[in-house]
Write a structure and sequence with these properties.
Layout (H helix, E strand, L loop, with lengths): L20 E5 L9 E6 L10 H4 L10 H4 L1 E3 L7 E6 L1 E2 L2 E2 L2 H20 L13 E5 L11 H18 L2 E6 L2 H14 L6 H12 L2 E5 L1 H4 L7 H10 L4 H6 L3 H4 L3 H12 L3 H10 L24 H7 L5 E4 L5 H9 L7 E3 L10 E4 L14 H5 L1 H18 L1 E5 L6 H11 L7 E5 L4 H6 L4 E5 L10 H23 L2 H5 L2 H4 L10 H9 L1 H10 L1
Parallel strand pairs: 1-8, 2-4, 2-7, 7-8, 9-10, 9-13, 10-12, 11-12, 13-14, 14-15
Antiparallel strand pairs: 3-4, 5-6
């Protein structure tokens, strides 16, 4: 930890590094963030279920609670926990009062990150603050007035502070309503491509292909970093020395992996699993004198939650980690498990994820080295065929895929011989003009720009590109929710408070429609 911010984060010209307000479906305790905001009342009556987020210790009222109505918890927690009074002397508070306190709280949280400087969690480009949807009166759907006030206040404060905020909504019906309110009443500008992708997801026309760039936001290494990580775990100094030579760097990636796999033998799969399941370790321990090898499980990045929230039935990945599956589990309170192929049986109409190169739960199946790629067709032909079926029948959204993987390239090229036209859209880390031209007849390539005021440091570039993917996916997610999902939700429309702000004519028309009647019949 240093006491001053890295230069690439303190440039005075920060017009391109303004913060963003995300909306994600999931459980607050599953989100990796720099700080979490917990709602309570004037009397500081903190509900017991928030201990899942802050830990078992009883919360201690912040020192200036009576004056500020917000503050950081006095006790130490894994994530910085802040509390905010969302009432007016323990009674319902108007939206503008809550919005004002939220703005002040986020400003205070931002200051706490900078004096002394604290690096963003998991190598993110900007700090992330997570909070539930405030002003819902202990649950339910926030009123349109509350949503507009809250999102407007957050939008203003993150633009100036260069800090990201994620509103985390655990219940799907409430998430749908929030997204609908967000796009209907705020008039947020949106990229036409992201809106089109969201509408495809809404109609069930979109499939996903996930690459290493998705997990970059969780702090996991790319392929080159993975090889270095595996070599660093070797118990032989000659192997660790070898990976730091020019001779090793000059080998193609697959040959680097082949060499490391041969040198480590049976120990290589365990080192790979360690790299994708244990949170990145700090350079020094708590005393600053030695490595910190405390194993902490990796949590999903925002991109995993945003992608899982699209509810695409068909997903493929070359990643070994299990973060997409964990995001799905978080969104369903653990009641739904996405089937991992080829290891699980897929239930009728259920979603699945195709693990093209194996995963952390099946280390012997991991595909990394040159020999494993050469043998792929003989041992995994059915997996390749299923991926090709996705390309033939869906518009595939490639996220964080570099298009340098030999298997993905070969399988995709085979499909282009039979299916003409655009197969999908790629949200890639790099803005690669040559690769964009190479794939222009097959894939719509959208590379992530790095803000001009960010230094061209490789690590910083990757962090900003990963964040840009998250911002793009947030726009896709906003348009993936259909109006009918909201207006046919009996729980929402039966709310006497009319949280959606529909007028009498809209309410009457909605409940009188044949779709509403059919929906109610099917749920009774």
């Amino acid at each position: 930890m240093t006491t001053t911010a890295p230069h690439h984060l303190v440039n005075d010209d920060h017009s391109q590094t303004a913060g963003h307000v995300f909306v994600i479906h999931g459980s607050l305790e599953d989100v990796t963030c720099d700080a979490v905001v917990i709602p309570t009342d004037t009397s500081f009556g903190v509900r017991r279920h928030w201990s899942d987020v802050t830990g078992p210790a009883a919360p201690v009222k912040p020192a200036r609670w009576a004056e500020d109505h917000f503050g950081r918890a006095a006790q130490e927690t894994t994530t910085a926990a802040w509390y905010i009074d969302v009432t007016d002397r323990d009674h319902a508070a108007p939206p503008e009062l809550i919005a004002g306190r939220v703005r002040a709280a986020v400003e205070a949280i931002s200051r706490s990150f900078r004096t002394p400087w604290l690096s963003p969690v998991r190598g993110r480009a900007q700090h992330l603050v997570a909070l539930p949807l405030l002003g819902t009166g202990g649950g339910g759907v926030a009123s349109t007035d509350m949503v507009v006030a809250l999102l407007s206040a957050l939008g203003e404060v993150v633009r100036d502070l260069r800090i990201d905020v994620a509103i985390v909504v655990p219940k799907r019906s409430h998430f749908n309503a929030l997204q609908w309110q967000r796009r209907r009443y705020l008039g947020a500008s949106v990229d036409d491509t992201m809106r089109r992708l969201g509408e495809m997801a809404r109609r069930g026309e979109l499939a996903l292909m996930l690459g290493a760039g998705v997990s970059a936001g969780a702090g996991l290494p790319n392929w080159a970093g993975l090889i270095k990580h595996v070599a660093a775990r070797a118990d032989r100094q000659d192997i660790r020395d070898l990976v730091n030579t020019d001779a090793f760097d000059n080998l193609p990636m697959l040959d680097q992996a082949e060499l490391i796999a041969r040198l480590l033998g049976d120990r290589a799969p365990a080192a790979i699993v360690d790299a994708v399941t244990v949170a990145p370790r700090t350079d020094s321990g708590s005393d600053g004198e030695g490595p910190d090898y405390t194993a902490k499980p990796v949590k999903p990045a925002l991109s995993h939650f945003l992608l899982a929230g699209l509810r695409c039935r068909e997903v493929a990945t070359t990643n070994y980690d299990l973060l997409y599956e964990r995001a799905v589990k978080s969104q369903t309170d653990g009641s739904l498990k996405v089937a991992a192929l080829p290891y699980d049986v897929v239930a009728p109409n259920a979603s699945w994820i195709l693990k093209l190169h194996g995963d952390a739960e099946h280390p012997k199946d991991i595909v990394l080295s040159r020999s494993a790629f050469v043998d792929y067709d003989g041992s995994r032909q059915a997996l390749g065929a299923l991926f090709q079926a996705m390309l033939m029948t869906r518009h595939v959204l490639f996220v964080g895929v570099s298009f340098t993987d030999d298997n993905v390239l070969r399988l995709t090229h085979h499909v282009t011989k039979s299916r003409k036209g655009i197969l999908g859209t790629a949200l890639a880390l790099e803005t690669d003009i040559a690769r964009k031209r190479l794939w222009e007849d097959t894939v719509t390539w959208i590379g992530m720009e790095v803000p001009e005021d960010i230094e061209a440091d490789k690590e910083a570039r990757t962090a900003w590109q990963a964040r840009s993917i998250e911002v793009s996916l947030d726009q896709v997610a906003m348009w993936a929710v259909s109006e009918s999902e909201v207006l046919l939700d009996k729980e929402i429309l039966d709310d006497s408070a009319n949280p959606l702000g529909l007028d009498d004519e809209q309410l009457t028309a909605t409940k009188a429609g044949r779709h509403w009647t059919s929906y109610i019949s099917s749920t009774e």
